[in-house]
Amino acid sequence: MIASTSCRTLLRKWRPFKINTKTVQFVITRSVAQKQALKLTPLNSKLRMTVKDHILPNDQPISELECEVAFNALTDSEKLYAHYLSQASWEGGLITAVQTSPESPLIFSFLFQLLSGQPLSELKEKALEKVTEDEYTALLVYACGVFANSGNYKGFGDSKIIPGLPQEKLEEIVQVSGAYSKQPKLFKSLWDNCKSGIYSLNDKDRSLGFWDKV
Questions:
Q1: Which has fewest Cβ within 10 Å: 18, 150, 163, 172?
Q2: CA neighbours within 13 Å on the CB side: how many for 202?
Q3: What's the CA gap between 89 and 195, in Å, rounded?
Q4: Tell me, what's the pLDDT at 179?
């Protein structure tokens, strides 16, 4: 499904918000340059964000939720309830991607097929013939960001997430992937239809909301 221009506009503007006219500084652990880039200014100016602010760092922590002890303490019926609730959440999760941005469902499908088309160890081995270790890691970090936020925009802050490797490098990984070798025309078509949305940082793409009013 390809979203129309009108739908795209609606999706970009569905979250109205207000910003105090005073400059606000986020208090987070970042470099001085990044802190300056994340200042919010009055409504008649724009977010001072650099390309780096849209890239998740390779050392981004990933935490695994430990639930075995809690799950084992449930009754059999409670375990079934928890299981099917998680299954329903996964199946319905794409709805959130659709509501986030027009390109999010395609990106979700692209990343899922890219990473599940073969064991990750095999994909890494082939990818490292074309890209560096850091570039491959950047792909995994980007995928984690998209899956965790149910779309290519951060759940907190609504700023766009883009990969930390160049588009041509990601395309090289695509071409050596299992998904591409199994269905080259179909997977290339998927990649061609979502790569622009993955990397675009036009003013209207940098964040959700009333971008022209910030």
A1: 18
A2: 7
A3: 27
A4: 95
